[in-house]
Design brief:
The protein is of the alpha/beta class. Helices cover about 55% and strands about 10% of the residues.
């Protein structure tokens, strides 16, 4: 095993390439290496605010980078350290523990054996205030607000149904964020079905099923995304059935989302199907033109983009079914305008978005991996593998960005495509490429060319 300082130097370089400069300066630059023992890497942060933010958004990214640089799987533990003392020369302390205050320094872990800590990974950007309510989603929005305001008392369970990219995940996070803010003693657990499955399999393999059951059955609000992926998984369905009964019997809130109604999920056990149908089924439909315009204006305001009405109408008229693609189109126009030092105009938008409005084609991650690998002179195996050479990392981030933009894949599903990387790694890659497209013309042109190529070959 390398010296911890040398290991962390390499990790820092990898992390810096994976996030925006603002994220690096505000959060990750404050990390200090403390200790490495066996397969546990302990890192220090200056206060509880930084620790919470890193634990919620960046811990998986750090774990992936550290494991890659160390050449072995590592778990990452966070502790609070005195930064001023930590920067003193090491010879002034007897050992690294001298600079770590004992109070308030309990490690925060994400290994399967320690997931019962109750930590949640909610995106703070997804709130009720940032959700655009309209006739297409009004029932789901109102029901989500109600269960957040009075968890366990109304609409239990709440089942939100709608196609990919229409805001189901946004509402789950909004519920969780509202509950945490207004009921600070409540334990909120948000997971994708894939995470639920992975936790279940890990618990079975490591014989920690008691901790697994406690983790999922002792929360106050359970939020599960994409339950359609439970089809053909009998053991997982049985586990959810018993988890449901325990929580519902205790008056705890359950909210689930799916791209189809419970009756349309194949091989779903009848007893579980009846439980899911016992509450409120709220459907989200594709947004109408007025709603799409409102979503674009909200996104423009959030990103400080001057969006002329005719440009908003052009985008909203041509991108009809998917909010993710709608916002992606705005990002492309804004990036090109910034790079060209030109105002956003209808003429510019029509040129940049010449590919929209055509008949949608099925695009798969394999198509995107093949196109990106060819464009960067790499193999697909290198693209999804562990190596972190600079050109390779850029290509990998572009591929993650394109899969998120052009397919229905969630961040955890994208991580699985790339060798089981943590979903926070994929989030950081998407945000990094989105930002860099506004600053680097060559990258913008590469991404745009790939989008045109992939859509043309779909």
């Amino acid at each position: 095993m390398d010296n911890i300082d040398e290991l962390w130097d390499r990790c820092s370089l990898a992390l810096k390439e994976s996030v925006s400069d603002a994220v690096w300066q505000m959060w990750l630059s404050k990390i200090l290496p403390v200790d490495i023992t066996g397969d546990n890497l302990t890192i220090g942060v200056p206060n509880s605010v930084v620790r919470t933010r890193i634990n919620d958004r960046f811990l998986g990214l750090i774990r992936d980078a550290a494991s890659a640089e160390a050449g072995q799987p590592l778990e990452v533990l966070l502790i609070i350290v005195d930064v001023d003392e930590a920067y003193e020369p090491l010879e002034e302390t007897e050992n690294p523990a001298d600079i770590v205050p004992l109070p308030n320094s309990a490690p925060v872990q994400t290994s399967s054996s320690s997931r019962a800590t109750g930590s949640v990974r909610l995106d703070p950007r997804f709130t009720f205030d940032s959700f655009v309510s309209a006739s297409s989603n009004r029932l789901a929005f109102a029901a989500a607000q109600t269960v957040a305001e009075t968890p366990g008392r109304s609409y239990n369970p709440l089942f939100i149904q709608g196609a990919s990219g229409l805001g189901k995940t946004h509402l789950l996070h909004a519920i969780g964020n509202y509950v945490l803010e207004n009921y600070p003693t409540h334990r909120v657990l948000y997971v994708t079905t894939e995470t639920f499955l992975n936790d279940f399999v890990d618990a079975m393999r490591s014989r920690t099923t008691v901790a697994f059951k406690r983790h999922y059955r002792e929360c106050d609000v359970l939020l599960i995304d994409d339950v359609q992926f439970m089809q053909n998984k009998e053991a997982l369905q049985e586990e959810l059935f018993h988890t449901y009964n325990t929580l519902h019997g205790a008056g705890k809130q359950i909210v689930l989302t799916s791209d189809r109604a419970p009756k349309s999920i194949e091989t779903l056990e009848d007893r579980l199907r009846s439980r899911l149908l016992s509450g409120l089924l709220a459907e989200i439909d594709p947004p109408d033109l007025e709603t799409r315009l409102a979503i674009l204006r909200t996104k423009a305001m959030s990103d400080h983009i001057e969006l002329p009405d005719d440009v908003g109408e052009f985008i909203a008229t041509n991108v009809k079914d998917n909010i993710r693609e709608l916002e992606g189109a705005l990002t492309r126009v804004s990036a090109f305008a910034h790079l060209s030092n030109a105002p956003i105009s209808l003429e510019l938008a029509e040129m940049v978005l010449s590919d929209i409005g055509t008949e949608p084609k099925l695009i798969t991650p394999d198509m995107i991996l093949d196109a990106v690998a060819e464009a960067y002179g790499l193999s697909v195996e290198e693209l999804v593998g562990p190596r972190r050479a600079r050109p390779l990392v850029t290509a990998r981030h572009v591929a993650m960005y394109l899969i998120r933009t052009l397919t229905d894949y969630s961040y955890p599903s994208i991580g699985k495509v790339f060798g089981g990387r943590d979903h926070s790694t994929c989030i950081s890659a998407y945000e990094k490429i989105s930002e860099q497209m506004k600053e680097r013309r060559q990258l913008y042109e590469q991404v745009t060319a790939l989008i045109l190529q992939i859509k043309g070959s779909g």
